[in-house]
Amino acid sequence: KTDFYVDCYQTCNNKVRDLWIQFCSSNGRISGLADKNGKVNQPPVILGSDFIYFIGLLQLRGGFRISEVLYSYRNRSIYNDYHLVNHSKEMGSYWEYSDDDLIEVIFSMFPDSYYLFPSPNHLDNPNHPRSKTHTMNIFKDTLVTKEGWDRYGIRSSHNLRSFFISYMIRKDDISPLQVCEITG
To answer: Contact at 8 Å (CB) between 164 and 63?
Structure first.
């Protein structure tokens, strides 16, 4: 249902907005992870599990697979200089800095790396992407369980691609051919 899609989209959008406001109001500092009692017991680690709201929002906005987001490069020059040299037989994608508010926010909030969402171990192991398996587990824990998206039939991140496709097909101004072109 369109209402389900909109609810999931708004959940991610609102959380990202709140994180951005917090980031800006603290001069770009991100709080460390807190334990179940609210005590901060770990240093800042790129938003902890809250980064999943950015992933979900990108998937809902563009119909991406989770690996297409996790393994995407921050810009064309990294794609050309690193990916095409080291992984020339594999598919790859990159982002362009633009006036798109979400991409600008991600570029600002996440450390400079080859990847849009670098590994939380980016200081010890720079220029590595986040683990797909770990990210999928965070997706289930945070969005499926905590946010209750299972009530919409979402059990994994792959369901967001289907959600996007069904939402786009229902729109009057998008043809099925355009949806096919967008999602491949």
So the answer is: yes
Residues 129-163: pLDDT tens digits?
A: 888 999 999 999 999 999 999 999 999 999 998 88
- Rounded to an integer, what distance in angstroms lies between the CA atom of residue 34 and that of residue 83? 36
Long-range contacts: 7-14, Cβ < 8 Å, 24+?
7/152, 8/56, 8/60, 8/143, 8/149, 8/152, 8/154, 8/160, 8/163, 9/57, 9/60, 9/61, 11/53, 11/56, 11/143, 11/147, 12/53, 12/54, 12/56, 12/57, 12/60, 13/57
What is d(CA 154, CA 84) in angstroms, rounded to the nearest whole number?
Answer: 35
Q: How far apart are CA 181 and CA 171, in angstroms?
A: 15
- Residues 78, 113 contacting (CB under 8 angstroms): no
Q: Residue type for 144, please?
A: V
Among 65, 53, 49, 35, CA closest to 106: 53
Phi/psi of residue 82, each to 5°?
-105, -60
pTM reported for the whole predicted model? 0.86
